[in-house]
Amino acid sequence: MSGAEAGTATGAATGANTGTATGTATAPRSWTVRFRHWLTRAVPEGQWLPDRQPAYVRSWVYVFGVATLAAFLVVLLSGLVLTLGGAAWWHVSRVGHFVNSTHLWSVQLFFVCMVIHLWGKFFMAAWRGKRALTWITGTVAFVGSIGTAFTGYLSQSNFDSQWISTQAKDGLNSIGVGAYFNVLNPGQMLLWHVMLLPLVVGILVVLHIVLVRRHGVVPPFDAEPPDDVAAAQASNVPPQREATERSEAA
Amino acid sequence: MWVLMSSPGAVFPAAGRYVHWGVVQLSLTNLLIIAAMLVVFVLALLLPFPGGRESERRERSGVRR
Q1: N or C: which terminus of chain A has fewer CB atoms within 10 Å of its end residue's CB?
Q2: What residues in A contact B33, CB-CB < 8 Å?
Q3: Cβ-count burial of A198 within 10 angstroms (0-12 exposed, 13-18 middle, 19+ buried)?
């Protein structure tokens, strides 16, 4: 009998608690168990999709982060449809025009919300309370988004994209990136736009959200953070919100 | 081709208005968008959040959520 089969049999026979103990015992050997434990440590259960937030979050200025995320999802979905249709479709078809416009305007909304989110977090000094990595992933995602939007403008395949590419080529060639980032090569720019850069931005956004959930949203200067967040900041251990809620319920 | 030669403006729209400030050159459209974003930011700081007062009242009376 293999280790995996034995683990399943033990878990089925002795219940959930024993199953957990068995999983802990096999942790060094199984990458799935190690990965699960790493995930649990990174963002403990109870921090995902919380149903309660600190009182200071009841402010419009805290809305722009999730508004940016919502716009980003619309950008991704409309972009996915555009890749399936292709340039001939989005230039000619009425539905293609609509999806193309949806993609463009959701990008405008994405950047507007992201910049206002950036202003709000900058003036709150959002890197406080061990949130430096949250701040860094956000700013790098912002820079990556600019590159993604730039390659998007180059992929419009119209006079605008030709003008922008000829204006940009000298600057980019002067720093020696022309071979891998040739703005006069529409095929290369399209692949940067639909694959490489969205992947980078998407990973950064996921990391950013995980870090926000782990450390909590930054409080205003004159607000006291919740007890669990304050304790976590003092001890460098992620707050256990689920445990807090359970104890309150009990 | 006749349209292009007789009235280029019909094909190539006129250049937009630009604001010059030292080395900074900004189109009027972009300047207005930035101004609108600043207005939204200030409003987000000043306007009360819907349901905020109600939630505070319930919390004061001991009711959570």
Answers
A1: C
A2: 112
A3: buried
